[in-house]
Specification:
Elements lengths: L1 E5 L4 H6 L4 E5 L6 H12 L6 E5 L5 H13 L3 E4 L1 E4 L11 E4 L2 E3 L1 H6 L12 E4 L9 H20 L5 H7 L7 E2 L2 H6 L11 E7 L2 E10 L2 E10 L3 E9 L4 H6 L2 E6 L4 E4 L5 E5 L2 E7 L2 H8 L3 E7 L8 E7 L4 H11 L4
Parallel strand pairs: 2-3, 3-4, 7-8
Antiparallel strand pairs: 1-2, 5-6, 8-9, 10-11, 11-12, 12-13, 13-17, 14-15, 14-18, 16-17, 18-19
Helix pairs in contact: 2-3, 9-10
InterPro entries: ClpP/crotonase-like_dom_sf (IPR029045)
């Protein structure tokens, strides 16, 4: 497989960010994961760069390794070939064209490593049973190990094991092409944001319920917590994407519940601190506010320059469906009033 990295072409593209991509094309062979990692390290490819895949497949084990490199480097995946158009000296932004491509067989395993996974119009996505060529008796055991490895890998990437069943049910000499709806059903594609993942944890004297989501705006977390002697608290961990100053200094900070139907102004009582690539926001909640959060259909936090500003930074309200029981249990067990 071949890899080509393209970075920003103009000063405006550098200022705006996001004008980077990797084209990955050809047959997947041994050593390709090392080649991709070397390119990423040498070129300084930043997180959230999209890898455009155009491949009919190849070595399945190497496909998993490529997906693991993509995952570890926090890259996104898409299908096709992204090409720069001819540029004139006064172009502030250089035109780019996405040409349709295919992601087949082992290339689908590479694709699965994307932090966000996109399925553009005209793309082709096909699967079949993975098998060794010219099998010998020992390859039966190797195939079983490979299948177990693929299942574990897909689960780690948040993809339904029903996807593996589709592959296993298609003969290795045939190809099952999957639609966008089928890929979305099995969580192989995410679009611009992943589903919210909820979890409950306890640390020291603090019990909390956390929602986590990846999107084109970064990886964000919202947390409803209760600590002994402190009470209820709200935390947000916001991937800053170079906007630490705005996130820490914009004057308006509001919790938003049920989409944006309910707002709680916390501008004067929240703390905001940079933490590596993130900004961590924290505020103590009144018991009634904690109840509103716990019983909401979604919640997040918006940070704006003024009340009139239409554009916000922060975390769009996260759907609480997957964490509803945990959020409500936390509130009901920790509230002080009857």
């Amino acid at each position: 497989m071949q890899f080509e990295y393209t970075d920003e072409q103009t000063d405006l593209e550098i200022m705006l960010g996001g004008f980077r991509h990797i084209n990955a094309f050809g047959t997947i062979g041994k050593g390709d994961a090392d080649k991709l990692l070397k390119l990423i390290e040498t070129a300084g490819v930043p997180p959230r760069t999209t890898v455009y895949i155009n491949s009919s497949g190849g070595d399945a084990e190497e496909g998993i390794k490529l997906g693991c490199v993509i995952c570890a480097c926090q890259l996104d995946t898409s299908i096709g070939t992204y090409v720069l158009e001819p540029k004139s000296d006064d172009d502030p932004i250089v035109a780019r064209t996405l040409y349709s491509g295919k992601c087949l067989s082992a290339a689908t395993l590479m694709f699965a490593g994307g932090r966000l996974r996109h399925f553009p119009d005209g793309a082709s996505f096909g699967v079949h049973r993975f098998a060794y060529k010219n099998p010998v008796p020992n390859d039966v055991e190797k195939s079983q190990v490979l299948s177990a490895g693929i299942a574990k890998y897909l689960d780690q990437m948040g993809i339904s094991l029903g996807f593996l069943s589709l592959s296993a049910g298609t003969a290795s000499n045939k190809l099952l092409e999957l639609s966008e709806d089928e890929l979305r059903e099995h969580r192989m594609i995410t679009g611009g944001a992943t589903e919210v993942v909820w979890g409950t944890e306890m640390r020291a004297q603090m019990l909390y319920v956390r929602g986590k989501r990846d999107s084109i705006f970064g990886q964000h977390k919202v947390i409803l917590a209760h600590a002994k002697g402190v009470g209820f608290m709200f935390f947000a961990v916001i991937e800053a994407q170079g906007r630490q100053d705005e996130l820490c200094n914009f004057g308006v900070v509001e919790l938003v519940l049920n989409g944006e139907n309910k707002r709680i102004d916390i501008s004067r009582r929240c703390s905001r601190e940079p933490n590596d690539m993130d900004v961590v926001l924290m505020v103590n909640l009144k018991e009634g506010e904690a109840r509103e959060v716990a019983y909401s259909n979604s919640f997040g936090v918006q940070i704006r320059a003024s009340k009139e500003a239409e554009v916000f930074l922060g975390v769009s309200a996260m759907d609480t469906e997957g964490g509803r029981d945990s959020l409500r249990s936390l509130y009901e067990n920790m509230k002080t009033s009857s």
